[in-house]
Design brief:
The complex is a heterodimer of chains A (178) and B (122).
Chain A lengths: L3 H14 L4 E8 L3 E8 L6 H5 L16 H12 L3 E7 L3 E9 L11 H11 L4 E8 L2 E6 H8 L7 H15 L5
Parallel strand pairs in A: 1-5
Antiparallel strand pairs in A: 1-2, 2-4, 3-4, 5-6
Helix pairs in contact in A: 1-3, 1-4, 4-6
Chain B lengths: L5 H17 L6 E6 L2 H6 L1 H14 L5 E6 L11 E4 L6 E3 L4 H13 L8 E4 L1
Parallel strand pairs in B: 1-2
Antiparallel strand pairs in B: 1-3, 3-4, 4-5
The chains are: A alpha+beta (178), B alpha+beta (122).
């Protein structure tokens, strides 16, 4: 994957598959480090799987024996000399924290982070997302709970709500990380 | 989130409420974009964004777009499925943003399957 924002999308997909109802995505970048934190309240990862989670031949799925998302991301983190830590408790959720050197040559570009957020919110209306993004001097926070409260009975995936959301994200995140 | 756009949101809410009241109760057509690691790596996000763009531009209120994981057919990604109410589910392969826009126009709106891009029909 060519963009960090695609890895983030992929990692959040794991939280969605784990049945999470609340997902926090935190992306913070300053002159030294890029820090990515994803925290969910999904079903959690069994201890024996967690130990081997960065191995591509480890997965919680029953249908196949490979799980590439975390191992691909771990490759990126490793190639940049960064650190990836994953904590999980069964029945409580999972927290992933990656810290990477912000100016490493092998660090892929952030890419379309607003597209990633839009894709997640638009297709998972029942999940409450909280995005916290800090890029150098720009800060952005967005909670789907707040947006749902403002929309009332209008679904967050209604075409007009989507239109608002897309413009809101482009306005507030346009240019960040690309 | 910032409170600057509340007025804008109120307008959306008012307009959408009227449309929801006028909507047919017959159910919704469903588009599923497969967003496993393989799908994302093959371009599923861009496909999904193109679908959402068409939904928004055409104001398609009877269409729900959701996502699902990998179905084990990684070599055909990006894969989407389209199920119009009362018709079988159609799985499409190698769905680029351009193909997605065509599928919306031809299949979702006009009910004609885009046969050359079909992977399978259930």
């Amino acid at each position: 994957m060519k963009e960090i924002s695609l890895h983030i999308l992929d990692l959040v997909e794991n939280s969605i598959s784990a049945g999470a109802k609340n997902i926090l995505v935190e992306i913070m970048k300053d002159s030294k480090f890029l820090r990515i934190r994803i925290k969910d309240d999904g079903k959690g990862i069994p201890e024996e799987i967690l130990k081997e989670i960065k191995n591509p031949f480890t997965t919680t799925r029953k249908t196949r024996r490979v799980g590439l998302g975390i191992s691909l991301f771990n490759e990126i983190v490793g190639s940049c000399g960064g650190n990836l830590e994953i904590k999980s408790k069964l029945g409580e959720g999972t927290e992933l924290v990656a810290i990477l050197p912000a100016s490493h040559l092998d660090l892929p570009p952030m890419g379309n982070i607003s597209g990633t957020i839009y894709a997640l919110v638009a297709t998972c209306p029942d999940i409450d997302f909280f995005f916290k993004i800090s890029f150098d001097d720009k800060n952005f926070e967005f909670s789907t709970k707040d947006l749902k409260a403002e929309l009332g009975e209008i679904p967050i995936n209604h075409p007009q709500a989507l239109s608002f959301l897309r413009l809101y994200l482009e306005k507030n995140l346009g240019g960040i990380g690309i | 989130m910032k409170k600057l756009t509340i007025e804008e949101l109120k307008k959306i809410r008012e307009k959408a409420q009227t449309e929801i009241q006028a909507r047919s109760p017959e159910g919704k057509d469903r588009i599923v974009v497969h967003m496993g690691t393989c799908g994302i790596a093959a371009g599923a996000r861009e496909t999904l964004l193109a679908i959402l763009d068409e939904i928004e531009k055409r104001n398609l209120q009877n269409v729900i777009v959701t996502q699902a994981g990998c179905i084990g057919l990684c070599e055909y990604e990006p894969i989407i499925s389209v199920q119009k109410v009362g018709t079988p589910k159609v799985l499409y392969k190698y769905v680029t943003p351009e193909k997605a826009r065509r599928i919306i126009a031809q299949h979702v709106i006009n009910g004609q399957i885009v046969t050359e891009d079909v992977l399978s029909t259930e």
